[in-house]
Structure prediction request, 270 residues.
Amino acid sequence: MSPASWDRDFDLNEPTPADAEARARVKLDDLLEGRVRLSLPGRFGGRLIRGVLLIVLSAIVLLGAYAFAHNTRSAGDTIFVGMAVIGLLLLIPATRLLKGSRPTTPLRALSLFYSSVGAGRYEAAKRLVVPNDFDHFPRAFPDVAGSVGRPLNDPLFFKEPADFTDYWNALLRWPTAPYCLARVRGLEVDEKAQGIVFCRYSLELSVNTQLWALLILVPYVGIIIALMVDNQTRTRIFAQVTKVLISVDDEWMLMNGAWREWDDATPDWI
Prediction:
């Protein structure tokens, strides 16, 4: 089966596991033999900027501590130490953000992917998926407990940019002013071949609307009410997920940009 035949064979038909296996093998062979042009995902600006801002804030606090120490007597030692500790502690999340801004490990690649689709940054998410996954192969909408809704069309075809957006919007994005917090936990990595890994992990997602933030306008206790209502109305999704990732130089990419397709469920085809 060749990629050129997928438009014809799968446009109106539901593929079988044999079809999915054939497609997965073709995709992997094309990648390994250099028939698909790959671009490295590179750094992700959001985490990079937040990391740099924390470093700048750390430098300001440390400089303030230094200046304070040279302009006060011993009575200010406690304040100096406190400021210095805060400045140094800020470097911990800053370092994590800078390291996590580039998918140099499977965990970082998965975290960047889910945070990108959760935030509606779909072009960024696509950078973390091998390009030959965006074809006319049908994707059935997954049965995920807690998903926000369903797309207008089912199945969807990631060859169409709108379908990739509709797919993940329906899974993770509230209709109005959405947010989605994603966390990958308990990652187990099983190397199946050089630069190809099968990952098992727990995916935790919290989905809600940001409109609850308007409650902070309530005098005196608005922020407390907003936090309480947001926590009580969140949609929480917990799932055990498996994914196949491939290494591109020193960065990692997902072999499939859907929730979990057949080739993500088993590594036997590799």
Q: What stands out?
A: The chain has one domain: 3-44+102-265. The CA atoms of residues 161 and 231 lie 33 Å apart. The mean pLDDT is 85. The longest strand covers residues 178-193.
